[in-house]
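Throughout this review, each integer encodes one residue's backbone shape. One record appears below.

===
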Amino acid sequence: MQSLQLINESITNLCTIHEELLQISEQKTAYVKEGNLDKLQQMLGQERKIVHVLELAERKRQAAVEQWCAEQNLPVSEGNITTILTHIADHKMLQELEERTITLSELILKIKQQEQLNHMLIAQSMQFVQFSLDQLSPSISKLNYGSGKQTETMKRSVFDSKA
């Protein structure tokens, strides 16, 4: 029962961390839309810190699952939420763990969708910047102020007139 409580607490903690990541991802979207690179870089720094905390929390969850598997005499490879839920006798704990797991899955999905949006917005921004640069930089044909044939005929006519 102790290991189930640890798993439950770990998943609750993971939900809290993922909520923070979702908020940061939404803020990143707003900053990308605004074109505010300074704030975006600050958000990326905060995101890195939270991802590190997430990794630590995930390790704790894995350790709790391994402890539960040892208590149940199950191989660690069977330490997934479906197996855990089928072995829980306490209905209240079962319902609580199931709800938290669903919440965690939904948060992960929302973060994934938000990050895909951020990726698309950044890609569009990069395309716009590239287009703008292409419009501002002169092409080689424009540098000559005309086609190469005209300059050749002009050179000949100037040479021919001197002769």
Observations:
- The mean pLDDT is 86.
- The helical segments are 2-34, 37-71, 81-86, 91-136, 140-143, 148-162.
